[in-house]
Amino acid sequence: MLLFEAGVSSSSSGLENQIFQYIDLHQNEFIQTLKEWVAVESDSIQPGLRQEVTRMVELTADRLRALGATVELVKLGSHKLSDGQSLLLPPLILAELGKDPQKPTVCFYGHVDVQPAKKEDGWKTDPYTLTEIDGNLYGRGATDNKGPVLAWINAAESFRALKLDIPVNLKFIIEGMEEAGSLGLEEIIKKENQRFFSDVDFFVISDNLWLSNRKPALTYGSRGNICFSVEVRCGERDLHSGSFGGIIHEPMTDLIALLDSLVDTSGRILIPGVYDDVASLTEEEKKLYEAIEFDIEEYKNNSGVKKFLYDTKEEILMHLWRYPSLSIHGIEGAFHEPGIKTVIPAKVIGKFSIRQVPHMDISIGEHQVIKYLEDVFSKRNSPNKLKVSVPTSAMPWVANINDPLYTAARKAIKTVFGQDPEMIRDGATIPIAQMFQNITRKSVMMLPVGAADDAEHSQKEKISRHNYIQGTKLFATLFLEIAKLPGKLQEKSNTTTTN
Ligand SMILES: NCC(=O)N[C@@H](Cc1c[nH]cn1)C(=O)O
Ligand SMILES: [Zn+2]
Ligand SMILES: [Zn+2]
């Protein structure tokens, strides 16, 4: 069996200690860089902030160049906004550090765009000023995903600073549109499959959280997502509700009825056929849920919500990971500011999404939803215009946990955190996971460093100093563990799915 020649000797624990010491000593510098990154309002959702996303991508490229990496900024073109205008997408980073044919090649994916955040949303600290309170680093993007991206870069930097050979070749794919559905990404992965990705052995994504506040996790699945926009329009301009209220079919009333028809009070999706293709639950899979350590009270506390739809650990985990869910996100055109405005909006757009699971199909899901909404709408006898569109969608992903990449990660987690990881799936969507697996047929793993209470997308997003610094050590240790793997094994053993 061929071993990757990676310069790892039997004294690798001494090597690890040397690297860990360096990381501990330089932790404040690593936090300072995270502070500089969080200060960039790289919100990919609001068109007015697109320049900041591009600036953030360029800052990341500078950091990679400083590491010694070769960096390509790939143009992704533009996309259409709902008002018909077209907007440039930020470039995508493809970078590489090391090209030794004797070493395995690991490609790291991350994103440097963030969800919107405003102090007025209820943040206790300014979302774009990384603020340390009781060992936690609060700020938008701290855990999703600037912290983990920097942890990976810090890990490589630590080898360089210590003049140690990095035992793997590193590749990076860093995007600026993940939070908006990874626009333009799939095309590039297809295009680069025979070039940039051709020599990649392993893909590592660190863009999710542990299941617990304390216990590390390794992730082998994520849900997909179909995002829907439902537009109802009565005319060209808003109307005075004193002059027209009571004599017209109001778009908002139609829209609320449509949105209200989607889910029942138990959380069940009411669209006919939605559950038809959901993978059936096997006895073997059932046992996986029973064996997982999961503190319902802790998870509830993290959410700030008093009661969940389900009471048992198994039901909760299954409804997060292996069953679809439907969430309503917002209404464009609705008057949402404080005060009273007695208007009838002429056009409103409702937004909701369906998290998909194996073996649901995106196009079947789209058709089911469109047909259902048209049926519900037709029963209202409204003369208004209904338009349903799908701005973005992504497929679910499940990997084979017996892949050697997972073995390497388990060992690295045990070394750094002193305990075995919880093997988990994630209820969120990482569009690139299934793209990597489908297109490249290589091993894909998600290795989170953030804890369950990191409040991704929320008003108190944070990463703890501990997790950021231990996460940096984890990635450095992973490089060493991957270098010890038997070569070429991964060709045989990826892409098998476990539902
Ligand atoms: N950190 C991952 C994440 O939050 N991903 C988004 C991606 C997405 C899916 N549909 C639109 N964006 C998520 O909401 O899961
Ligand atoms: Zn993310
Ligand atoms: Zn996110």
Describe the structure in brief:
This protein has 499 residues and is an alpha+beta fold.
Task: Identify the notable features of this structure and list them briefly.
499 residues; alpha+beta; Aminopeptidase; Alpha-Beta Plaits; 2 domains; six-stranded mixed β-sheet; four-stranded antiparallel β-sheet; 14 helices; 20 strands; 21% strand; globular; disordered N terminus; disordered C terminus; binds the ligand NCC(=O)N[C@@H](Cc1c[nH]cn1)C(=O)O; binds zinc ion
Task: Please give a structural write-up.
The protein has 499 residues and is α+β, with helices and mostly antiparallel strands. The chain folds into 2 domains: 14-222 and 396-498, Aminopeptidase (3-Layer(aba) Sandwich); 225-279 and 322-394, Alpha-Beta Plaits. The chain is 34% helix and 21% strand. It has 14 helices and 20 strands. Strands 1-4-8-5-9-19 form a 6-stranded mixed sheet, sandwiched between helices. β6 (131-133) and β7 (136-138) form a beta hairpin. The radius of gyration is 24 Å and the shape is globular. Bound molecules: the ligand NCC(=O)N[C@@H](Cc1c[nH]cn1)C(=O)O and zinc ion (2 copies). Mn(2+) 2 binds at residues 111, 144, 207. The record marks 240 as: Important for catalytic activity.
